[in-house]
Design brief:
This protein has a six-stranded mixed sheet with strand order 5-8-9-10-11-12, sandwiched between helices. A four-stranded antiparallel sheet has the order 1-2-4-3, with helices on one face. It has a two-stranded antiparallel sheet with strand order 6-7. The protein is an alpha+beta fold. Helix content is about 30%, strand content about 25%. A hairpin with a 5-residue loop joins strand 6 and strand 7. The protein starts with 6 loop residues before the first helix and ends in a 7-residue tail after the last strand.
Length: about 230
């Protein structure tokens, strides 16, 4: 009989098993987070981009990132409610983008290799067509070595607000021009510009794309109806 293992622990054991299966027997330490865990390796044994791509392919159900210190951040899958919020925002941006044809929209499965060498994924990202077209086909097929101009992160119940703020700051330092951090449960949002952060304290408000996404607006109130 198989013993039931709680979600986080099951995810951890599954990933460690995959490390052995793909013959990555590095020494590592583990730090448990609210919604996942961090694997740290000695500097000379850290995952390079290709090894990380293989690890992600072996764990398609997980959200896996690498920070600027080469630590792997492995998070549990997003809950159904949070995923529905992503879809609503993605749909709104997709409609605007199809009308303007100025860029490419990415979902949470897209990883980007940022200037600080980290590999990050946002719940939603947008990159201008000019920057996307400057990449080679090979670069597009892996973790694109570029920072999107616009990203969105939506807080799940298991996410730490402080951790998400740190992630948004990292996005900004790497070149994001506009970022939205949204907490639907508490009806608040932070809007990250290049040098300032605006706080939205209620959902009777429309977020604007500004100069990054001219004419794009998103009504936060639509998220309350899910």
């Amino acid at each position: 009989m198989r013993t039931h293992i709680p979600g986080k622990e099951q995810t951890l054991l599954g990933c460690l098993a995959v490390l052995n299966e793909i013959e990555i027997s590095y020494l590592y330490t583990i730090m448990i987070l609210e919604n996942g865990f961090i694997l740290s390796f000695p500097e000379d044994l850290a995952f390079d981009d290709d090894a990380l791509l293989a690890f992600c392919a072996a764990n398609p159900e997980l959200r896996i990132e690498r920070d600027e210190n080469k630590q792997l951040i492995i998070m549990s899958p997003t809950g159904s409610l949070a995923a529905s919020y992503h879809h609503i925002i993605h749909l709104a941006l997709g409609i605007w983008n199809s009308q303007n044809s100025t860029g490419i929209v990415f979902d949470a499965s897209a990883g980007f290799r940022l200037p600080d060498t980290s590999i990050r994924a946002a719940d939603l990202a947008w990159l201008s067509r000019k920057k996307w077209d400057a990449l080679s086909k090979e670069q597009k097929q892996k973790f694109a070595p570029i920072c999107p101009e616009f990203i969105v992160e939506v807080k799940s119940p298991s996410d730490s607000w402080a951790e998400l703020q740190r992630k948004m700051e990292a996005w900004s330092k790497n070149g994001v021009l506009l970022g939205w951090l949204i907490d639907v449960e508490k009806e608040k949002a932070l809007v990250y510009h290049e040098s300032t952060v605006d706080e939205i304290s209620n959902f009777n408000h429309k977020l604007e794309g500004g100069v990054v996404l001219p004419g794009f607006e998103f009504d936060l109130g639509t998220l309350k109806d899910v």
